[in-house]
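request received
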Amino acid sequence: MIETRLGEFEEVILLLAGILGEQAYAFKIAEEFESQTKRSVSIGAVHSSLTRLEEKGFLKSEMGKSTAERGGRRKRIYTITAYGKKTLAAARDFRQSLWDQYPGFATSKFSFGH
Amino acid sequence: MNEKISPPRLAERFLTYFLRRDLAEEVRGDLAEKFYVDLVKKSPFKAKINYWYQVVNYIRPFAIKKSTTTNINSLDMFQSYFKIGWRSLSKQRMYSAIKIGGFALGIASCLLIALFIKDELNYDQSYPDGDRIFRVVQAYNYMGESGKDVWFQAPFAKAVKDDYPEIEKAGRYNSSELFGAGSKEIRRADKIENTYEEGFVYVDQQLLDILRLPFVYGNPSKALSEPHTIVITKRKADKYFPLEDPVGKAFILNNDEKNPFKIGGVIEDFPATSHLQYDFLMTMTGVEFWDHEQSDWGATNYPTYVLLKPGADPDQLAKKMQGVVDKYLLPMWLKNGMPNAKEMTKAGWFELQPVKDIHLRSEGIADPVAHGDIRFVWLFGAVAAFILLIAMINFINLSTAKSANRAKEVGLRKTVGSLRVNIINQFLTESLIYSFFSFVVGVFLTWLLLPYFNLLSAKSIPFPWNEWQLFPVLIISALVVGILAGLYPAFYLSSFNPAAVMKGNVSRGSKSATLRSSLVVFQFTTSVVLIISTFVIYRQVEYILNKKVGFDKDQVILIQGTNTLDKKLKPFKDALRQLSQVKTVTISDYLPIRGTKRNGNGFWNEGKDNVDHSIGAQIWRVDYDYIKTMGMNIVDGRNFSENMASDSSGIIINQTMAKKLGLIDPVGKRIQNNRVWNVVGVVEDFHFESLRDQIGPLCFVLGNNSNIISVKVNTSSMSSVIQSIDGLWKKFSPNQPIRFTFLNESFARMYDDVQRMGRIFISAAGLAIIVACLGLFALSAFMAEQRSKEISIRLVLGASLKTIFNMLTFNFLKLVLISILFAIPIAWYAMHNWLQNFTYRTEITWDVFAIAGALSVLIALLTISYQSIRAAFVNPAENLKTE
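response:
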């Protein structure tokens, strides 16, 4: 198997970080995760995953501005790296190639009407 | 958004407690944002709960403070504590040595006594059916006379087994010298040389079945079922039959070649912790000591053991066993015409004593085995605890006294940010260092002293290296003792106010002076109590050993095992008498020392046997020379005479017997047991049992014995006498080495236990006073050091050495004097109680207290004065020049 070094949860977090852009910090990503997947998640779990992704080089981060809702505390904004994007694309392509090789699913799709 | 409600503070604190510092801002920000978002959507309670949930979910490896960093930090602190502790230990060699040495002594004595107690508690704990094995005890209380003993009638064991289904097995033994148990001359059937052996006993096969003694050779269930069989211990088997299985081989006992004893089995040696200590178990099968002895309900000679069926209640059974009296004894008593037979059945009762209790809980039960006493176990335990306490007090005293020297250190530590906890930890670590050192030294001391302690306590305890509990127990004790001893100093020292300390007005260790003084008083009170007790015990021992016992125990040699001389016995006696150093010679197995023959009988004045209650008296068979040889005094009438044929029915009674029989002028009166005797003389009362007991009635009649020849000699150069006696013996008995003892030594041995207790007490008292004095020594050194400037100034201003000496000494002496005042009533009370054990006892006179008091003052004075004199002789310039 190709080493994508991405778990399912990690892949979703990475994608969400890319989607959220300027607003990609732990709390927002967790909120977004919950609203998109209807699965509950703790901020800690998301944060843990973000840290791991950063260690692997898929993300980079820097401290952003402080806002009043946070009691004047700053937030850490995550941005996806080029390597991260490449890995996401590779993961998607790999999965696509698997789908393409999957005859049952492909056939059933076409023969559904019979 | 509700501004007033903020995240739960406890959760926030918890978060900061574990969260990595560099993550704190973003995480707290995120969580706060989440909380306020939640507050809008949910209730504040739910928001708070969710906040907690989020916090708990941050307990993840990436977010937690690196545990390695915290570890390194506390390890560093510990290293620092350890280093400082080590430095202060090695900086003050004398104090450290005294702390550790005193502690180690305390620990060593505690360990020794713990080993002793463990050994005592270990007795008889390992029989496979131990919980169901009981020794039968009979108790009586009749006309004010009460007692308990373990001797039963020969048919008793079988009767109870047959009559009570709760009893699975019942077995007996007989260890009476009177029946030939005890000691014998023994040899293999194929050898001619006799060897003297002790530890013979008659035993039922059933008793082997009950105790289930471990067999090395032979069939345990049949080893003693044949007549003339014997079971021996492993060590005796190794001695007589090295490297072979001796089952089926035979021994000749006491030259009786017609009745060899066939070996039925070999058992493991009885462990040292068994109340039964025998080497040769002769079968009871086929044995009858006289006609119908085995069915005789009139003589009690057999300690009896029963094995109960599982679940049987021993107390109820003991009550039911009363039936034995009605069924077997009452008919016999009635037949013999005993006037008070009916009353007698109600005067006695039975008890079942668990075999595990025999060693320590047989107080007040007369039996033929040596045992310990649970009260001694407690007493020794208490003594050990006190010595340890004294040692711990030294530790506390020295630590608080030296606090002045550490005060600046504590002040500085606090100033640079040490918490109180750190300082407590610091001093507890130091205390633990001392404690562990002391334990190491203490264990070493124990190992060193154990052989001497074994001598002292007449035990053979090995050092328990191979017991797995030893080291965990030692380490835990070191921790506990170290923390206990260090607790007070740690809290005391850590309570210093840094500002005050740094400014210089240090408390100089004087705040705690009252506490220190009271601890010193406690130490010395304990020591003085022990000293006084030792004095009293020694007085009592001296008193017993030198009391006029009514016979002359000096210069009497006892030749034992003479029964094998057989027909040559009389010629040997005559030959002995020819020796120039020999005054008189007597042949009698009955001697006024423990371990020789005894024989009890009931006596009446003639014709009163159906009217009066009988007088239980010893009836001793002696020869014409007995009273002369033993140096006893005839106070009325005369000794037996060879010229009077009628003396074969003559009897000499002691004064107690005359009194009990109510004879005012006894000579010429007639008394009876199973026959009638003429009283020919009255012998002055002499002690024939331990001096713990009252002298009982006793009488002499003429008779033949053969086991012991007593020789009174007229010289004190014993070695030459023994040489000539030995030369004579070799001519008469070439195959058997001579065996002799001295009457006075055998007498002294009767008081071994008292002497042993005296020795143990003297050691304990010695230890206690040494440890206490070590503490005093260090304290006085410290005081002299503290006041060195004051002393120097006084010296410069013209104080005399005497003034300085008095000034330094009096403070401590005062404490010792107070201790003596406390100690006297305590010691008096304790020793007064102890002396109640003895019928013949010394008085506790005031001089005991005076001597003990003077002694402790003297010892304390010597201890202190060394320091006082040193302080007084110092050159004042030395101490003042730095000022």
